[in-house]
Amino acid sequence: MSAKIIDGKAFAAKVRAQVAAHVARLRAETGLTPGLAVVLVGEDPASQVYVKNKGIQTREVGMNSYEHKLPAETSEADLLALIARLNADPAVHGILVQLPLPGHLDSDLVINAIDPAKDVDGFHISNVGLLGTGQKAMVPCTPLGCLMMLRDHHGSLAGLTAVVVGRSNIVGKPMAQLLLGDSCTVTIAHSRTRDLAEVCRRADILVAAVGRPEMIPGDWVKPGATVIDVGINRIERDGKGKLVGDVHFESAAAVAGAITPVPGGVGPMTIACLLANTLTACCRAQGLAEPEGLTA
Question: Where on the phi/psi map is residue 291: left (φ > 0), alpha (ψ -120 to 50), or beta?
Answer without folding.
Answer: beta
